[in-house]
Amino acid sequence: MTGDRGNDAAEGAEDTRAASSGSTVRTGDHDGEDEQRPPLPPRPSLLQIDLATAPSASPKRPSLQAKPTTAISSVDIQTLSFPDGTRGTFSTPASRSVSESVSVSGASGGQSTPSRKGRNGSEFDDATSLMSYAPTLRANGDLASLLDEELSSQSPAWKLLSSQAESVNPFEKVDYEALSLVNFDHEFDEIEAVDQKGGNEEEVLLQWKSKLKHYLILSSAGKPIYSRHGDQNLINGYIGIIQTIISFFQGAKDPLMGFTAGKTRFVVSTDGPLYFVAISRLGESDAQLRAQLEALYMQILSTLTLPTLMQLFTNRPNTDLRRPLEGTETLLSSLADTFTRGSPSALLSALECLKIRKSQRHVINNTLLKARTEKLLYGLIVAGGRLVSVVRPKRHSLHPSDLQLIFNMLFEAGSVKAGGGENWIPVCLPGFNNRGYLYMYRPSTAHSTSREDEIAILLISADKESFFELKQMRDDVVKQLEKNGSMDIIKTAVREGRPSTTDVVPGTQLKHFLYKSRANVQFAMPSFLPHFGSLLARRRLMTLYHNLHASTHAKHSHLKVLHCVNRDSVSLAWTTPVFEFYCIAGPNASRSALAQGANKVVQWMKREEERVFIIGGAVF
Amino acid sequence: MAEATAPKPSSSVKLVLLGEAAVGKSSLVLRFVNNDFQENKEPTIGAAFLTQKCNLPTRTIKFEIWDTAGQERFASLAPMYYRNAQSALVVYDLTKPTSLIKAKHWVAELQRQASPGIVIALVGNKLDLTNEPSSSSNALGEDGDGEAADGEDADGDARKVSTAEAKSYAEEEGLLFFETSAKLGTNVTEVFTAIANAIPETSLKGARGPGAASGTTGRAEDQSRVNLTGPRDNASKEGCAC
């Protein structure tokens, strides 16, 4: 695995030589054809390219269209720095050795290596995505030669083999790194209760320890509140230890944030009277684990509201919070399991929408607006776990974390679903207001068989007496949607499911991607099938995304593009002010193919933006 | 509407289920409405609203059932559901004595604050966990059953609340009394039929809609919104596809 700052970087030795000469530009796609490539045409001079704009240059070289994404301006080169703190340009031998060592450590550690990239000229990348700049090429060339050293350390036979097997899918081979996930299929199995008569305690403890992920919630007084795995008898001792450790540092006015034991990362977060601990062997970053703990805290607030929580602990610091939270363990667990399985939505803190035509969404929005009752605060149409439409007051948007809570309650946890009937659910949405309850009307789900084909109209009001009004509105909306054909459109869109990567970009080698639109706080992705259908494959994909995300979101990171080569996959992360993009391809896909695919996806997103995302929504 | 074609007069009755968490309120309703049972049902959040018709010889009762969540934190919402209810099902778990205490609290609260004349049924659920044959503890079971049950503990009988104890309390307070098993379906329909029969004719309103507004005093007063939307409500429900 290695960090790389040029998607234009070459695979073969010829490319490297040509590029590093600083006077040529590569043409053509180099998917496995490196050996036979004809001599490269001369590269335009630096000066020319600096002055050239993307559109003016592109017609000359249509073959370059897919390769500008990592363009680095000369200004950026001056600020390039490595994670180890060294700075400099890539043309010096010193930096060359540095980057090489980075590559090596990355390969052995199996972690994505954050390598610094210069800022992209985003106006070009986003708008035209057409052109490389000369400085980029130069830098890439140097980097490519570095990469080449590593590549050639593999045997020529290996290279030959890999060039013939472009179509290998990610994670096809069992990787030694994946051995840590060997028990992942059992991650969600129940742990047996400790038998009072003893005997099985050791076995139960082993089961408990074999879990890759634990979440513990306790009060600052040391009372256990929640544990994902293990019953009270099992965890009480550990709760005591953790409370002691946290309190020790708390007392020293130097709060404990986290620590590592072997391959296990412990992250601690304190919210008022509550301690949250995440214990993970899945390799998430501290920030990501902290976000997960925050979501658990939000779930607790959503049950109790902040004033109630504070009041409970102000009155009695040693309150046992399990009683007030009674019945919500399943909500906490389903949330926790969502994180353990790996959720793109949680990772990106963004929502996923159902892709329909803009005009169709417009009709649905208007239907909602027309049927709106005075008591309505938020209205949502959710189909197949994705958002179809939102109706909301002008001054309030819907916070992704609140929506995550709602989705978790309605679709992940079985509670509301099982009983049938219509539900009237008091819920605090902390992103909206953590001090009081809202009331959510949830229609009967008797007709739908699974989350996937369910079309739910959720209506939220601040008035707890407005059940029948919202029920009426919902009935009106359903009737209207049936009448104007929207219901069929939604059903069709749900049935079609997410597109595959090849639907988005025909012939691409990308196997999966995530695209987050920052402005809309929404994301889009292709289907997990066929490559990531299993629990394990999906977890490995999500781990990769978590690594890419962590690298691009590290504090003080100016990383904009990250290219990762792994034994069993290659991947790319690309962030701009407009979007975040992550993608993965099989281990033998070339960098250029990856970059080309990325560009195509981004272009597609731009074209389809108003279908893929809800822009604005229905506002009243 | 189905009721419109029926020759018998039809009326709506608001019914609320109250009781401690995990005693089987939702399971009773599920059995009554769908004749179904789910093991390890997740707890209800907030409240669920369901309807089911109950055919009596002389009339049809349409139950509008509010199945409330039993957790302590939802208790403050209960008045919203029992206000103007014509009937209530207060449920306890006959393997858990504390749940009967909670049930008594609910009964007291209903008598104090709900509409006067509300029909309350006390229901001991989870009869399947006892050893006695279910037929012996039929509706308003014989006094003898309770004593017998106490003696059966040794055989792994999970019963902790005797029939006699609960029954005598129910008689004192003037409640209907049943022991049920939502799992096996024992006595479930009987509870609802008995409630339907016990609702005084005078407190029934006619068919839903206009009739509802002229119904019981309580109903007309608070839920005018409901009444306004009532007729359309029914129609759209039948046309609803999701």
Automatic annotation (TrEMBL), chain A:
Keyword Transport in annotation: yes
Cellular-component GO terms for this entry: fungal-type vacuole membrane; Mon1-Ccz1 complex; multivesicular body membrane
Family named by the database record: Belongs to the MON1/SAND family.
UniProt key word Protein transport: yes
UniProt KW keywords: Autophagy, Endosome, Membrane, Protein transport, Transport, Vacuole
Pfam families per record: Fuz_longin_1 (PF19036), Fuz_longin_2 (PF19037), Fuz_longin_3 (PF19038)
Membrane topology: Peripheral membrane protein
Subcellular location: Endosome, Multivesicular body membrane; Prevacuolar compartment membrane; Vacuole membrane
Function: In complex with CCZ1, is required for multiple vacuole delivery pathways including the cytoplasm to vacuole transport (Cvt), autophagy, pexophagy and endocytosis. The MON1-CCZ1 complex acts at the fusion of vesicles with the vacuole, through its regulation of the SNARE complex during the coordinated priming and docking stages of fusion, and particularly at the stage of tethering/docking.
Domain FUZ/MON1/HPS1 third Longin: 510-609
Span of domain FUZ/MON1/HPS1 first Longin: 213-335
Annotated transmembrane regions: none
Protein name as annotated: Vacuolar fusion protein MON1
Coiled-coil residue spans: none
Region (Disordered): 1-126
Chief site of localization: membrane
Stretches with biased composition (Low complexity): 95-112
Ranges of biased composition (kind: Polar residues): 66-81
FUZ/MON1/HPS1 second Longin domain ranges (all copies): 375-478
GO BP term (any one): vesicle-mediated transport
UniProtKB/TrEMBL annotation, chain B:
Alphabetical list of SUPFAM superfamilies matching this protein: P-loop containing nucleoside triphosphate hydrolases
Entries under Gene3D superfamilies matching the protein: P-loop containing nucleotide triphosphate hydrolases
SMART domains: RAB, RAN, RAS, RHO
Recorded GO MF terms: GTP binding; GTPase activity
Swiss-Prot/TrEMBL keywords: Nucleotide-binding
Acidic residues composition bias: residue spans: 142-155
Annotated spans, Disordered: 131-165, 203-242
Coiled coil: none
Top-level taxon of the source organism: Eukaryota
Record's protein name: Ras-domain-containing protein
Organism: Hyaloscypha variabilis (strain UAMH 11265 / GT02V1 / F)
